[in-house]
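Record type: monomer structure entry
Structure origin: computed from sequence
Chain ID: A
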Amino acid sequence: MSIDRSTTNTSSLKPLCVLFADVSGSTQLYEQLGDKKAALIIGNCVKHMDSATRLHEGTTVQIIGDEILATFPTPELGLQAATDMMHRVVMEQEVAG
């Protein structure tokens, strides 16, 4: 499929940063802790990732399981959100033990 560029108004297009993140090691967490406790921890991690997205002017496009797909108006905001997500998930892991 091709795009007819003669009818595309490129002046209205804006750059967009796309971020995909997931909780590393979630499968092992389910194996070690069982479904109920692991789902609670993973759910908290995803909530932290979603909060970091909104804090850094992002939009959560989709959440599936332990994964989040988000967009940001600039790469810098996407990077800040990714860094914040990592920090929040590490803190969650420390709290969970």
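Annotation 1: The two ends are 50 Å apart (CA to CA).
Annotation 2: The CA atoms of residues 51 and 85 lie 8 Å apart.
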